[in-house]
Amino acid sequence: MKQPIELRKLRDFGQTVNDSFTFFKENFKPLVRILLAICGLFILIGTVSTVFTYMNISSMFNFTPGDYESSSKPTSYIIGTIASTFILILTQAFIHLVTLCYMSVYLQKNNTIPTLAEVWGYFRYYFFRVLGSGIVMFFVICIGFMLCIIPGIYLTVPMYLVIPIIVIENGAFGYAFNKSFKLIKNNWWTVFGVIFIMSLVVGAASSIAAIPLTLVSVGSKFIPMKALSLPIIIFFSILRNLLILAYTLPAIAVCLCYFNLSEDKEGTGLLDRIEKLGQHNNQNDGLPSEEY
């Protein structure tokens, strides 16, 4: 029987990327089931929003001069796009947090698949802490980009490690913020490379549905296909919002980066194995102890 992936271990760049895909593959069914249970409503709302957005694009390209109803299409498109973007960002954030909670419970249970109730408990526990941390990090990154583009890019990478530290170690924001910079020291390019590769993968997955949606919406002006445009838009809108689950991969990869850096700097995995020597029937007692 194949052994489950050990989370706390040293990994190089290639191993981090490969193990991210391996972990996703080995936990695909339980992880996706939990993601759909917790994030399903937002995926559904996102699908409806995507349909209306691309229908507005299609109507806008069929604009008729002098038609009052047609003249209001650009406004509808702008409002729809803003709403769709907000829902997309919210869904991505939920998927990211659920994935980190899944991996945290997986670690606490000694590489055993967690249940929906366990992940949901972690999700509720960390939601507002992560929300507040996310707002602070957003302003930190914005200040970095306002000073100059390069500081903004530099700050973005350690900010990716803050949420995994909060969830895995049950740490406060200040603790996680400071530790992220300690871990990233001399490892910035490695973490940046992992994030960049996973972003390309997610972008490629999203384009599978986004490109046909754009072509159908814009092409309706040149090709008479009104009878087919709505079903096609609905189909690819559903596909696009299901493929958003691919955002699980960057979350897994960033979490593995955290484990790698933590093991390299602190040897936490080795210390855990030493502490567990001679212990049997170790039970999961819920959330980890608070870090200060």
Task: Please provide a written account of the structure.
The chain crosses the membrane at residues 34-57, 77-105, 126-153, 159-177, 189-212, 232-259. It comes from Mucilaginibacter frigoritolerans. This is Glycerophosphoryl diester phosphodiesterase family protein. Keywords: Membrane, Transmembrane, Transmembrane helix. The chain is mainly alpha-helical and 292 residues long. The chain has a domain at 18-118 and 186-269. It contains eleven helices and no strands. The protein has helices at residues 13-26, 28-61, 68-71, 73-108, 116-147, 149-169, 173-184, 188-219, 226-242, 248-266, 268-275. Helix 2 runs antiparallel to helix 4 (73-108), helix 4 (73-108) crosses helix 5 (116-147) and helix 6 crosses helix 10 (248-266). The longest helix has 36 residues, at 73-108. The two termini are 40 Å apart.
Which oligomeric state applies? single chain
The major sheet is characterized as: none
Strand percentage lies at: under 5%
Total strands: the figure is 0
Residue-averaged pLDDT, rounded?
83
Q: Structural class of the secondary structure composition? A: mainly alpha
For the terminal residues, how far apart are their CA atoms? Answer: 40 Å
Uncertain runs are none
Envelope shape: globular
**Annotation field: number of helices:** 11
- Rg of Cα set: 22 Å
In short:
The chain is mainly alpha-helical. The chain has a domain at 18-118 and 186-269. It is built from eleven helices and no strands.
